[in-house]
């Protein structure tokens, strides 16, 4: 037994499993050739950023488009950032937007899949097995430097003006300790971290192929990075290399702020004897401000949190549809060619992703959302509206709950037609959009266009009330309105009015507007015949009578 093996036995006396045992415990996945295995691996902070949803969606798309797998792993090695049950908030965020993982963490203290545990704090045995192997091979060593000594080291490097700062080479005080020195310190109870013994050379560079950015050349890693902290918990860098290997990840999709860490991560994969994963570094989600762009901020921007979109009532389909316009430059062309295509049928490609920051535009999101909602039938709109209202507008939900069938008929107006209505972008707008159809919410507003007087309105409404027949279909209903025009001095032909406006008091549109205002309190609504059909004859006649009384005061 050489000194490295003796050191490994001293540091890890309880570790009996080997890396070969782990390879057998987590065998290669049985997947088709070219299938991508991806993961999303947040910290349990309870906060799901829109950028996180973006990256997770890309990870799921990459896996699904290749017949692979995508899983959710929780990286909780940084206990300072963790909050109690921070996992549930993340899970709920994904559930709200229909992002489904094939395996991994499914809730607080629950998971599914054959490559777990999927929470890093429960994988200590795996990290220690790999760490022991590194020590045995002379690729890792204990470092006993205190915080004060490390601070002094940084100050010396600053004073010396070194190009690279950190724990490496001549600055690595514990790198060349003898086994006897190491043994004495360990047996004395001196605290230590475990460091990588870097084999990198600052004069050498390496190239890796980023799936989005192409070939990137970077200097080799030369720092002796910490692998295990004093409490035995791995650093993110070491843990992710072990986890991605034994969970058989092929592609890691992550923010471009991690590009600087690639040299270390590649070094760790190689030191451990693992095949490096392929990286796709995603540009951040940006916001336009004062003519420039900046990252969406958790502190400054409410839309940075996915909970904002849930509370506002954006349909999950609309948010994902919009994100796809940011993810792949050819998505909108695909959508035009496939208006009813499912999102996951879209042929996602890393090569169609932007290398610069995707600009998140709430105005465009609202436009996308209006289009998405316009394609929904009344049943779907009703279900989503009630689900949202139950949580965020209980008063409106209580009103709707009285007669769910009536609500469905209200929300089916102008849906399923050649030109469906596009007046609703979020579920929080539904209440105001349809309030005139509910007695509990209706507030009459009899304001008229400037070209119509109260006397004109009263005259039109009296004539219409006398002619109104609730049994009319839409064509008969409109013909009846047109028939009112000439006796009242209006023309049923708008073009005729435009040619000779002095000859008439107005046109059929003015007559319709008066009826619309009397029945709904609004000048612009969806199809008026459909609205009156939903309200029913009794309510329509009552509103006509109220409006007549108002105008004749």
User: Would you report the number of β strands?
Assistant: 16
Order of strands, main sheet, comes to 1-2-3-4
Give me the Rg, rounded: 33 Å
Q: Tell me the span between the first and last alpha carbons.
A: 107 Å
State the CATH class of the domain at 3-16 and 124-282. Answer: Alpha Beta
Q: How would you classify the helix and strand content by structural class?
A: alpha/beta
* Structure annotation, total helices: 23
Mean pLDDT: 94
The shape, in one word, is elongated
Uncertain segments: none
CATH level-4 homologous superfamily of the domain at 3-16 and 124-282? HUPs
Helix content range of the residues, please?
Answer: 40-55%
Major pleated sheet: 4 strands, mixed
What CATH architecture label of the domain at 3-16 and 124-282 applies? 3-Layer(aba) Sandwich
CATH topology of the domain at 3-16 and 124-282: Rossmann fold
Sheet-strand content, in percent, reads 5-15%
Walkthrough of the structure:
- Helix content is 45%, strand content 12%.
- By secondary structure, it is of the alpha/beta class.
- Among the domains are: 3-16 and 124-282, HUPs (Rossmann fold), CATH 3.40.50.620; 393-437, no CATH class; 454-551, Arc Repressor Mutant, subunit A, CATH 1.10.10.350.
- The radius of gyration is 33 Å and the shape is elongated.
- The termini are far apart.
- The mean pLDDT is 94.
